[in-house]
């Protein structure tokens, strides 16, 4: 059984760890609120971008952009969004499980796969798992810009444009609320027609249309890539919010567990101390009786 000194040392060590986990919980809660604000600010941009692209698609029905045309699937690409740091519970593990299920389905149909990875945890995972990683980005921070994410996404889009990939999926953790994050595999390209269903456009009764300069086709070529980048950026922002909320919950659980350990050790310490006092009293009484 541990001595009183050893138990005191363990309690001191756990209290020190508890202070760290409590501080990390508070930092994660603060970052989560800011990440939620950025996530909510980014949604109107994505929605308006979708409306503009939907309007252009309807304005030139004779032109089918390559991102709108399905292909026979032989090779599939994944843009996998993970965190750079750990201590976020099962956030990344659940995402990898969801990804592996989807990859197994593709492999069962003799479909090849390749990956673009965002986040250090994803890079570490694929070093163990294997697979063809076309590009990777780490250290993108808590507020990445479109320019930060452009290069790896552009690598995957170029492969699609050259016919080396037939479908692209975005894999990230969708933020539901502070307690719930859902791993999601979302088809990025080709874009489904349902993504451009706009009730506002369908409900308009007037017949006039915008005059585009340059032509709708040229605008579509530019905006389609921006639209895909906007979806990826929104997915990254949601993954950051999910990471911070998962870390906050994990650190709270760690802090509570540390408190329970301290209580248990304190109870053992008190029992040992009481036993030691009782033994000393017995020795004193026994010595006094022997002298008398």
UniProtKB/TrEMBL annotation:
InterPro entries reported for this sequence: ATP_synth_F1_ATPase_gsu (IPR035968), ATP_synth_F1_gsu (IPR000131), ATP_synth_F1_gsu_CS (IPR023632)
Where does it reside?
Answer: Cell membrane; Membrane
Chief localization: membrane
Q: State the family it belongs to.
A: Belongs to the ATPase gamma chain family.
Q: Which HAMAP family match?
A: ATP_synth_gamma_bact
State whether it acts alone or in a complex, and with which partners, per the record.
Answer: F-type ATPases have 2 components, CF(1) - the catalytic core - and CF(0) - the membrane proton channel. CF(1) has five subunits: alpha(3), beta(3), gamma(1), delta(1), epsilon(1). CF(0) has three main subunits: a, b and c.
Q: What is this protein called?
A: ATP synthase gamma chain
